[in-house]
């Protein structure tokens, strides 16, 4: 039993240590240039369409949530009369 576990550990070590590392491009300087250029856009929208979509979704949820809170406050402030 122990021999099987030891053999499995050796195989696992060999496959992990002999795996080829992939080179990842460093995109940080390009992103820094994109976010630091002065083009009149707010920084939270410089990421492209995904940032604009996230911003609009957040704003819509905020407005809807605020409207719902105001509705509930008005409903609580003026309860319906029971006849």
TrEMBL record:
Belongs to the cytochrome c oxidase VIIa family. It comes from the Eukaryota. Keywords: Acetylation, Membrane, Mitochondrion, Mitochondrion inner membrane, Oxidoreductase, Transit peptide, Transmembrane, Transmembrane helix. InterPro entries: COX7a, Cyt_c_oxidase_su7a_sf, Cytc_oxidase_su7a_met. It comes from Etheostoma spectabile (orangethroat darter). The chain crosses the membrane at residues 53-74. SUPFAM superfamilies: Mitochondrial cytochrome c oxidase subunit VIIa (SSF81419). This is Cytochrome c oxidase subunit 7A2, mitochondrial. The lineage of its organism: Eukaryota, Metazoa, Chordata, Craniata, Vertebrata. GO terms for biological process: mitochondrial electron transport, cytochrome c to oxygen; mitochondrial respirasome assembly; regulation of oxidative phosphorylation. GO terms for molecular function: oxidoreductase activity. PANTHER family: CYTOCHROME C OXIDASE POLYPEPTIDE 7A, CYTOCHROME C OXIDASE SUBUNIT 7A2, MITOCHONDRIAL. It is a single-pass membrane protein. Pfam families: COX7a.
């Amino acid at each position: 039993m122990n021999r099987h576990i030891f053999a499995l550990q050796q195989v696992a070590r060999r496959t992990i240590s002999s795996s080829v590392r992939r080179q990842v491009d460093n995109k940080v300087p390009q992103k820094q240039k994109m976010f630091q250029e002065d083009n009149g856009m707010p920084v939270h929208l410089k990421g492209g369409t995904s940032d604009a979509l996230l911003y609009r979704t957040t704003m819509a949820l905020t407005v809807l949530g605020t409207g719902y809170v105001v509705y509930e406050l008005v409903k609580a402030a003026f309860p319906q009369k029971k006849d």
